[in-house]
C-alpha cells in the first residue's frame, strides 16, 4: 500500500496545491490515476490547470517514483495515505484528517487500541512518575500510548509505554527524520526501532512553533481517549484536550493541589466535565471490552496515590516553593537536620527544589 501513498506524494509535489485542496483530492479519489479522468471544469475548481494535468499524466506514467523513493530511503522512512489499510481508523473520522502520514517504525501499532497521554513540559517529579506508571499500566492492559515526544510528561509516557508489550507512538511536530528536542535523541531512536514515529509534515521539516498545536489534533484524533497528567491553564495539552472533545473523544485528567500551577489545567478540565482519574480503573471502566481491559490490573498508578510519608519537613511544604530558611524556622530543626531530611525526601521522590525553594512533588 506504500506504493499508492508514494504516488500521492508525487501528486502533491507535482501540483503544489493548497493543503485543503490536496486533502479534498485525496479523500475523493482512491487512486491518483483517477484524477486524470476528472473533467477539466472539476479540475479547475481544485486549482489544477490543463498544463498541470499534462505534467501530472507524465509523472504518473513513470514506472518508479523518482526522487520520492530516494528521499524516503535516505531518511529510513515511508509514507501512508488516507486510503491505506494501516491509516488510523479513528483519525479518518476527523474533519481535517491529514491525507499523508510519514512514518518510521512499526505501522502495525496503528491497528491497535490507541490512547493518548499528554501534559506539561515542566511537570513535577510526581507528574513524571504518574505519566510513566499510567503509560506502562495502559500498555499492559493492551493500549498503545500516543504522545508528542515533548519534554516532561510526553517523554515519561513514552518511556513507560516502551516497557510494556503494547509500545508507543510519537506524533511529531517536525519531519519524522528530525529529532526534537535534541535531548530526546536516545528516546527518538528507541521509538523508531521499537515503536512508531509519525508526522504529517514533509521530511526535513524543522520545529516551527505553529506546527505543534496542529499535530495535537492527530494525537487526539487517532485515540479513543486522552489522559492529561499535569497542565497549566494555558498549556498546549489543553489544546489537545479541547480538540479531543470536539472529536467526540473521552477526556480524563489527574487532579492536583489548587496551589500547584501545573494542576490548574487538569482541575479546570474536571470542572468542565473531564473524568477525574486517580487509578487505572477510572480509565478501564470506560472502555470495557477494548484491548485486555477485562483482566487489567491497576498496578503502579494506584500505589503512587495511596502512599504516605511521615515527616515534619514534608508537612511544612506545599505546592508553592518556600525557602530553606522558612523550612528550618517552621520545623524548628537545625540546618543539618533539615538538610538531611530534605535529602531523604528528595531521594524518595517526595519533594523537589524548584525556583530557589522547596516544594512537594506529590
Automatic annotation (TrEMBL):
Residues 306-357 form the DprA winged helix domain. Pfam families: DNA_processg_A (PF02481), WHD_DprA (PF17782). GO terms for biological process: DNA-mediated transformation. Gene3D superfamilies: 3.40.50.450, Winged helix-like DNA-binding domain superfamily/Winged helix DNA-binding domain (1.10.10.10). Residues 79-287 form the Smf/DprA SLOG domain. SUPFAM superfamilies: MCP/YpsA-like (SSF102405). It comes from the Bacteria. NCBIfam families: dprA. Belongs to the DprA/Smf family. This is DNA processing protein DprA. It comes from Zhongshania aliphaticivorans. The gene is dprA.
Amino acid at each position: 500500500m506504500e506504493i499508492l501513498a508514494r504516488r500521492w506524494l508525487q501528486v502533491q509535489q507535482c501540483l503544489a496545491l493548497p493543503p485543503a485542496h490536496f486533502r479534498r483530492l485525496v479523500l475523493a479519489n482512491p487512486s491518483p490515476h483517477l484524477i486524470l479522468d476528472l473533467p477539466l471544469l472539476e479540475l479547475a475548481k481544485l486549482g489544477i490547470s490543463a498544463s498541470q494535468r499534462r505534467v501530472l499524466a507524465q509523472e504518473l506514467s513513470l514506472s518508479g517514483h523518482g526522487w520520492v523513493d530516494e528521499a524516503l530511503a535516505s531518511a529510513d522512512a515511508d509514507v501512508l495515505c488516507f486510503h491505506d489499510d494501516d491509516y488510523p481508523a479513528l483519525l479518518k473520522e476527523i474533519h481535517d484528517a491529514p491525507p499523508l502520514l510519514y512514518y518510521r517504525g512499526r505501522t502495525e501499532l496503528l491497528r491497535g487500541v490507541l490512547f493518548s497521554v499528554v501534559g506539561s513540559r515542566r511537570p513535577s517529579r510526581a507528574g513524571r512518575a504518574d505519566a510513566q506508571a499510567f503509560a506502562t499500566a495502559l500498555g499492559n492492559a493492551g493500549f498503545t500510548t500516543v504522545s508528542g515526544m515533548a519534554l516532561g510528561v510526553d517523554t515519561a509516557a513514552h518511556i513507560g509505554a516502551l516497557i510494556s508489550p503494547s509500545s508507543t507512538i510519537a506524533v511529531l511536530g517536525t519531519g519524522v527524520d528530525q529529532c526534537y528536542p535534541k535531548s530526546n535523541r536516545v528516546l527518538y531512536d528507541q521509538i523508531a526501532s521499537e515503536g512508531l514515529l509519525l508526522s504529517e509534515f514533509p521530511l526535513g521539516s524543522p520545529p516551527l512553533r505553529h506546527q505543534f498545536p496542529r499535530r495535537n489534533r492527530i494525537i487526539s484524533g487517532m485515540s479513543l481517549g486522552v489522559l492529561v497528567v499535569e497542565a497549566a491553564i494555558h498549556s498546549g495539552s489543553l489544546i489537545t484536550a479541547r480538540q479531543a472533545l470536539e472529536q467526540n473523544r473521552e477526556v480524563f485528567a489527574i487532579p492536583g493541589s489548587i496551589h500547584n500551577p501545573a494542576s490548574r489545567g487538569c482541575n479546570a478540565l474536571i470542572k468542565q466535565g473531564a473524568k477525574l482519574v486517580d487509578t487505572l480503573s477510572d480509565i478501564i471502566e470506560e472502555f470495557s471490552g477494548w484491548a485486555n481491559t477485562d483482566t487489567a490490573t491497576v498496578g503502579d498508578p494506584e500505589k503512587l496515590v495511596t502512599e504516605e510519608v511521615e515527616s515534619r519537613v514534608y508537612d511544612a511544604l506545599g505546592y508553592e516553593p518556600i525557602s530553606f530558611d522558612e523550612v528550618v524556622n517552621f520545623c524548628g530543626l537545625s540546618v543539618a537536620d533539615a538538610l538531611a531530611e530534605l535529602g531523604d525526601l528528595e531521594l524518595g521522590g517526595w519533594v523537589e527544589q524548584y525556583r530557589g525553594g522547596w516544594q512537594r512533588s506529590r
